Amino acid sequence: MMFRQFAYRNVVRNRRIYAAFFMASVFSVMVFFLYSMLLFHPSIEGSATQDMAVLGMGIAEIVLYIFTMFFLFYSMRAFLQARTKEFGILLHLGMEKRQLHRLIFTETIIIGAASIGVGTFLGYMFSKFFFMVVKRIVMLPALPLYLSWEPFALTVGAFLSLFIIISLVAPVFIQTGKLDELIRGETGGKESHGFSKLRGIFGLILLAVSYSMAAFISNNIIIGLIFLLPMLATLGTYFFFTDSLPLLLHLFKVRKEFYWRHFRLLAISEGVIRLKENARMFFIVTIVSTIAFMSVGILASLTSFASQYREVNPLGLVYESFPGNELESAHINRLGYELRKNDIDYTYVRFPILKQQSSFTDNTVSIIKLSNVNRLSRSFGNQAFELKEGEALFLPPTISTFEQLNKQIVETVLGESGVPVRINGAYPYQLFPAHAIGTNTIILNDIDFDKVASFVQYPSSVYHAFDIPDWQQTKNIGLTIEHSMTESLLTGTYDDLHYTFDNPGRNYSVIRTTFTLLLFIGLLLAGVFLLAAGSFIYFRLYTSLDSDRKQFDVLRRMGITDKEFKKIVNRQLIPQFFVPWGVALVHSSFAFLSLQVIWDALAEISIVRELAAVLIGFTIIQVIYFYLIRWRYLAHIRTPG
């Protein structure tokens, strides 16, 4: 038998152990190849959204490559440690260490070449579907399938170099020691490892502190804690698996009335051993799963912001002119002309904004006219309001401030004009973006507004509101005004402008496209993370399959029923699958509480629905994965070795 044939048959013989490793590698190569196909696509050019697509794919490729390197190193280390008995036999038969290193190198290259070949093939097979999704998200006219050597060269070169590096470093992971110890391998006996009660309690305290800070955090201190909390939670998670969980299980073992009952003795004692043996693996799975949850959750919250963008930006176009703006009439006429040219229905309302000092608070108050408000409100389908002379309403700067302002009754005198006003409640409809007309604004009846205007030479500003029902059609309206603002910003003359312009329709188009694309990229990366996390458990489970088969064979000879057999298997498998996942779920839930605080401060948007969908989706995937692995595990356990 040739040496290469021996290496090939070794891989085939251990295919059960390498299966999850191979699947995760193939999926990583496939996703990397898809990103490469988009990076080198000849149709990608020009717009900011397309540039964002290329940037997102490039960053995703870097993250994917680094994570795959870590995953392959950890996996190879576990595989080689599990094969110490096999290596011991080969050395006993006369194989030199140099030949053993060559064997490992050849096996790794075989697996790597197969992964690269299959992953690249599947990537090209799914490229057309991938382009269809990206084209719809980025709104490109066409994104046809193409054939070029560049994506293939980048993918093959990146992963082939990665597998070569791993195959060269892998022999370092082989356990050294006496030959008889290598031959015994994992069958040399299991023993319960110790734990530190102090570290166990410290780990629980770290997690409790992290959760408490995340749950009760405020927007004033969240930036300062955004780097501290992940470190506390990570350190607490490590101690939780290495010391806290063994401590808790030890407390159960002390209670003999609980421990010495049916199959709990076997399940808990075996669980303690496996927990300590696999503590680092559980820690890694938890962190990787948390990263997957968080990445998708954060990106889902961004798409939530995009979906609720219309609610916080009800107007289609907004133009505000300040004193000294000689371009006001030209700009407004230009916007109206472009809207009519594109057959876009709109309602235009001009809001002169007056400033007065309130005698009640000695603060400056912004004043707008009721008839203008009613005209804009009717275009939204709302009913008009009536105010008598001397009456006014608060204009809430945000949706959340309505309840507070609606309960207030304020009697004041507008300083410069001397007009007495009784402000009773708040205006119930949101017509303007948050803080668009200041944080202290009132709606004044027409008679009193005209009185105040007679004492004011010029309005402090004029707010031009365009209500456009089909607001997403405005993405190409007002581009010349936006370009002039951008040019002024780049040249440092922005402060000399006497106007501001905002196009929420265009902003929404960019935001929705960008965030949806990022979510799509994040889902693919999360798929790699979760598949890798499951693979850690998979190959750790199957490397101990021979000893598990012998153990359950003894139990069957003792008369254990099939129902009892499944119950024991469940009690051993469920903690390995769901304890790391459950800890990751709790980590993510408390992190999302902090994320909700950030969104409340930025845009008063709720992300509960999106985050709940993310967590429920991952839960379903984990349950399906558990039953799939459990089915295969039971089949192998029942098969005689």
UniProtKB/TrEMBL annotation:
Domain (ABC3 transporter permease C-terminal): give its ranges: 62-170
Q: Where are the transmembrane segments?
A: 20-40, 52-74, 103-126, 152-174, 201-229, 235-252, 281-302, 515-539, 577-599, 611-629
State the membrane topology. Multi-pass membrane protein
Compartment annotation:
Cell membrane
Q: Which UniProt keywords apply?
A: Cell membrane, Membrane, Transmembrane, Transmembrane helix, Transport
Query: A GO term (biological process) for this protein?
Result: transmembrane transport
Q: Which Pfam families match?
A: FtsX (PF02687)
User: What are its GO cellular component terms?
Assistant: plasma membrane
Q: Which family does it belong to?
A: Belongs to the ABC-4 integral membrane protein family.
Q: Could you identify this protein by its name?
A: ABC transporter permease
Lineage of the organism: Bacteria, Bacillati, Bacillota, Bacilli, Bacillales
